[in-house]
Design a protein that fits this description.
The protein is of the alpha/beta class and 263 residues long. The chain folds into two domains: 99 residues, no CATH class; 141 residues, Rossmann fold (3-Layer(aba) Sandwich), CATH 3.40.50. It has nine helices and seven strands; from the N terminus they run H-E-H-E-H-H-E-E-H-E-H-E-E-H-H-H. The strands form two sheets. The protein has a four-stranded parallel beta sheet with strand order 4-5-6-7, with helices on both faces. The radius of gyration is 20 Å and the shape is globular.
Amino acid sequence: MSDIFHQCDLFHSIYNKLHRSKKSKLCIVDGYDDVAMFPFFNISYNLRIRPWSYLYKTRRVQYFKREYQNAASLFGFSKERFPFYNKIFSRFFKRPGTVYPISMSIPQIHIKYIPFKNKVNDFVAYNVDKDLNDLFDDRRIAELGKWQPAFNDQFEYFSNVEKSKFGITSKRAGWDCLRHYEYAAKGTILCFKNLANKDLLCAPFELDETNCIPYFNKEDLLRKIRSKSIIELESIQEQQYKWIEKYTTKKVALRFLDNLLSN
């Protein structure tokens, strides 16, 4: 099930028709930006329109979740909306044994090896951090949830990425985003705001100071960039290419299948 919010009734129908020995073969891939798992996101809708969905056996099948915070948040008590309850319930709730991590990916064909010294622009002309507005005088910040194309087409976008040394990225609706993979695939060093706040079980995985530049604010970012030599930046780029090679669509899909088979 690739969209459990819209497919929950279909899931329930199939689950009930399957023989008990085959129910475990069902699996849910939750690609929503919400840290809660179904049916604990969009709670108001579920309570008003289909309260019976809380009785569906979604936690009895393998549930692959991209966005993760902690066990309490899985049940709707996120740190942002319910900090007190999150702190309390996180002591008692445990991540269900059927919940597994998963991430976005990118086709191998989009990976292009471009030497760092060949890049001519400082930043990709696309900003997602309001603290950096004055670094992008000719570009307004991309507002979350609004359709505001910054480029005319994919060719123009990738061309800009290929020419740029650094790409600004951050958590927006969720931590994982195709932007991370698109930048890394073109050798553009990820400048990742507040990466240290991300849970280890939340995608994107395996990013740290060896293969990107985590930062907290503008001053921190500029200080880190200015303090690094070309050799150090080339090393980060090299490690980032190794990282993106592990997150092609084929390799992510194979790990997903390996999980299914081993479970």
